[in-house]
Amino acid sequence: MTPFSIDRRRLLAGSAALAGISALPSRARAQAGPIRIGTLTPLTGSGGPYGPVMVKAVKAVVDEVNAAGGVLGRKVELISEDDQTNPEAGVRAARKLIDVDKVSAILGTWASSVTTAVAPLCWESKTFLATVSGADAITQLPHQGYLIRTQPNTTLQGKKFGEFCIAEKAKRVFFLSPQTPFAKSQFDNITAAVKAAGGETGSLIYDDKKPSYRTEIDEALRFKPDAIIFGGYTPDTAVMLKDVYRAGFSGLKVAFGYSVNQKLIESVPAEVVDKTFTIAPSPAEGSKAYERLVKLIGVASPDPYTTQIYDQINLVLMAIAFADDSSGAAIKDAVRKVSQAQGGVKVDNAIDGLKAIAAKQPVDYDGASGPCDFDAIGDIIDSKFRYEQVQGSKLVLVKIA
User: Fold this and answer.
1) CATH numbers and ranges of domains, the chain
2) What pLDDT is attached to residue 32?
3) What is the mean pLDDT for each group of 10 consecutive residues in the chain (401 residues)?
């Protein structure tokens, strides 16, 4: 074999490689390697019952998309971290995802305190953040568009709680809550709804690490409430419900759906939690997206946060394809072009969305949590709510509205 033939083979091989690369979209050539997406969910701590299933949903979508060829000809790599339902742990995990793993987006921050702590790291590094936290203050941060939330904000949630109490004939409503980023907004909007109907409200902020809340319950009962709204997480709400029961309160009890869950119900005597109502954003049960998610993860009734993070990963992958660019800045600029394009092709999953985008069609995504339309600051525009009641040690659906 002559030196010329060796050089010719090398030249042909190099030309073929260059031809393969040039077939990729222009920005994909500049961004070789996998597209890295992070999840930052509560695998432990108060949010521990939700985080693992949320990650399972994201992984199922990533696996499905990778099996179909990935995005921009690149595989999607998922890196999952535990925020421990703790802001300090969340910041450490976010720093790793941003600085070490170089993710384009972080999905699924759950507790508002964690999201509030992590959001500045994201916008400063131009990393896109999608959250299921509800505190109004989150989207009021100067996030420069690097944040969307699929969870209804506290203004909307507080209004729903207050209106529900009034509909149940309550006139004096007391709100008990630990100090969270959403506590004041929640109470203000409960108050607005209750006072509009001629009622009165009171509130108390408590330390969520105490073994007993009898003092706090006695203070609440001095208000003579006919309804108590519990604003805490599962561990402290369980203690609260026990003390309320021991104090003999027989009025309306209302809590967040994420706190009075099956885990809490099974951890306390049946009489302690019986007849307690829960309110939560409602997944789009019966929709094609919801049914698809059920099949993907093998969970019969996915909770609202799992349906929301499922929608988040679908939106982010479609935004990357639309932008022909996997950077956080590109996701920020493209996400509404795939979530709510006027007159766009209706899709409910990334696979169909990627096909539409490849065909140069506009896309309007409706997901497992409902329509994913966002306003200018990143808030979901509308949502249905699910009302349930504990009956016989089980949560029973009352209505979706």
Assistant:
1) 35-153+286-365 (3.40.50.2300), 154-281+384-400 (3.40.50.2300)
2) 75
3) 38 37 44 91 96 98 98 98 98 98 98 97 98 96 98 94 98 96 95 98 96 97 98 96 97 97 95 97 95 97 96 98 98 98 96 97 96 97 94 95 90
Q: Which residue has the tokens 């990778």?
A: 66
Contact 297, 266 (CB under 8 A): no
pLDDT of residue 27: 53
Contact predicate 279/386, CB 8 Å: yes
Cα distances from 279 to residues 75, 181, 240, 242, in angstroms, run: 39, 19, 17, 20
DSSP 231-266: -S-HHHHHHHHHHHHHTT--SEEEEETTTSSHHHHH
- Residue 20: the pLDDT is 37
With a CB cutoff of 8 Å and minimum separation 6, the contacts of 6 are none
Backbone angles phi, psi at 74, to 5 degrees: -120, 145
Q: What is the largest CA-CA distance in the chain?
A: 99
CA distances from 146 to 66, 131, 208 (A): 25, 11, 31
Which helix (H) or strand (E) segment is 287 a member of? none
Q: Are 282 and 400 in contact (CB under 8 A)?
A: yes
